[in-house]
Amino acid sequence: METILAFITWDVNPEIFPSISWLPVRWYGLLFSLGFFIGTYIIAKIFVRENRPESDADAILMYMVVATIVGARLGHVIFYQPEYYFTPSHFIEIFEIWKGGLASHGGAIGIIIALFYYSKNRPDQPWLWILDRVVIPVALAGCFIRFGNLMNSEIIGVASDLPWAFKFIHAHVSDPETPRHPAQLYESITYLGIFFVLAGIYKKEGPKLPQGRLFGLFLVLVFGMRFVWEFFKENQVGFEQGMEFNMGQLLSIPAVLGGLYFIWRSTTPAAAPPPFPKNNPNLGKEK
To answer: Is 146 annotated as a binding residue?
Structure first.
């Protein structure tokens, strides 16, 4: 009996309008932006529910956009290619983010630091309180970003003979004809599921949610699954060859441990939610 190798040919152009040379709009950029704008809408709805100024959602958007881009870029530079970028001839390339090279672990660190400074000027929005709410749309943004990676044919998986394996025609590899795990899709679907888990918990507990619980759960779920999916990916840089765990996995371990700490902390009196504001800056807005 003849054996037919089943796979999916992924021949999607990374540009939305490839026939219009003067309009280089890419699917990745659209999905990246969409994640932030939908996230702002979600945060605004949460703030209305909890009597915080809805206008603060726009401020959070600015903090997070800058923190994500700067943090993700520095994360790639420091964690993956320091020997390349920290040389006089290549240092200026650190600022050339349009050439690619963003690390999600660095983006996460950037967001955590940025929201710490955001909360310093807003005593009604403690650091862990705001992190618990922000991680809900961040998980959804992660879903969009990984799908953007799929549209870019980047962060591809290792070779596979599974019927849903993808042949990434536009991937920058020596053997684009080899069917591979669609690792980007695995992660994208996982983050979408995590978004629904976090949103469901928040919908149930709302203002009564202990501080740090959703943040800790986010760290455990996102980076725990990131550790798993890294086994299905090609290594990103040369020095990872021969390593038992790659850089993405090594960076995920402290994130998971930190998440377990915050989950434990959420069971202590120190994690009591802040008082519900008596005044209502969203008076008259639809709940």
So the answer is: yes
